[in-house]
Amino acid sequence: MFPHSCLLVVISAFGFLRLPDFFLRMHPPALAYTFGSWCVALAGVLYSSMIESRPVLHPWLIVIMLSITVPVTTLLLARVALFRRRAAGAAYAPPPLTPRRDS
């Protein structure tokens, strides 16, 4: 499993170098991380099931927790980057969906 996970890390690093924008850079590592997590969990299930001669499914809890927390973290990082871009006054920042209310 080691060579496969190294390949996924190289693919995600290539995404960091190749893509010019923060928002574009978020996507390749997230895909590689998700695929790598599924592969490691599957390997854990197969290995544990072979050793104990019965189905062992608790490694899937890792994947379930990751599939809940990774999208939330990605969304929060994207919102922070968008807020910082707007606060810096970047011309290419999209406007907010709701108008600002000045007090």
Automatic annotation (TrEMBL):
<feature type="transmembrane region" description="Helical">
    <location>
        <begin position="31"/>
        <end position="51"/>
    </location>
</feature>
<keyword id="KW-0472">Membrane</keyword>
<keyword id="KW-0812">Transmembrane</keyword>
<dbReference type="Pfam" id="PF03334">
    <property type="entry name" value="PhaG_MnhG_YufB"/>
</dbReference>
<keyword id="KW-1133">Transmembrane helix</keyword>
<dbReference type="InterPro" id="IPR005133">
    <property type="entry name" value="PhaG_MnhG_YufB"/>
</dbReference>
<feature type="transmembrane region" description="Helical">
    <location>
        <begin position="6"/>
        <end position="24"/>
    </location>
</feature>
<feature type="transmembrane region" description="Helical">
    <location>
        <begin position="57"/>
        <end position="78"/>
    </location>
</feature>
<protein>
    <submittedName>
        <fullName>Monovalent cation/H(+) antiporter subunit G</fullName>
    </submittedName>
</protein>
